[in-house]
Amino acid sequence: MASIFSKLLTGRNASLLFATMGTSVLTTGYLLNRQKVCAEVREQPRLFPPSADYPDLRKHNNCMAECLTPAIYAKLRNKVTPNGYTLDQCIQTGVDNPGHPFIKTVGMVAGDEESYEVFADLFDPVIKLRHNGYDPRVMKHTTDLDASKDHFLFDKPV
């Protein structure tokens, strides 16, 4: 009995066996766990009206406080990303930290990848304000990976 297993698990047979098992496991996992890539938005009903939950941002110095309006808050407050992230969790850091008048921070975080789509009415103006007019819905960031075009201070001949 031991000779059968020792023959299977030696040399080329073992690598073929493990490759076949690994491929079958990966294929099975892919077929059983196919998920949609786009963000599905869930609604989470609240007990209080939006005006009661809207944070007081009058003395805050961050991009989120500048862009968040009661209308945007009322529109987005019930939305939840597929991973369970809410608008209140996004803006919590900006509410807790009012900032300094001379150092303007963003004041919000994206909890997951879908936050940029689900809360786009708030994220897009914040990105535009923070990055000097860059509009993520219209503009496309150029990427040039050609290393011959990179010239740094120490690359120049003396």
TrEMBL record:
What PANTHER family would the database entry show?
ARGININE OR CREATINE KINASE, CREATINE KINASE S-TYPE, MITOCHONDRIAL
- Gene Ontology MF: a single term: creatine kinase activity
What InterPro entries would the database entry show? ATP-guanido_PTrfase (IPR000749), ATP-guanido_PTrfase_N (IPR022413), ATP-guanido_PTrfase_N_sf (IPR036802)
- What biological-process GO terms show up in the record? phosphocreatine biosynthetic process
The lineage's top-level taxon is Eukaryota
Q: What family does the entry list? A: Belongs to the ATP:guanido phosphotransferase family.
Name assigned to this protein: CKMT2 isoform 7
Which UniProt key words apply to this protein? Transit peptide
* Span of domain Phosphagen kinase N-terminal: 46-132
PROSITE patterns, alphabetized: PHOSPHAGEN_KINASE_N
**Organism phylogeny:** Eukaryota, Metazoa, Chordata, Craniata, Vertebrata
Summarize the subunit comment. Answer: Exists as an octamer composed of four CKMT2 homodimers.
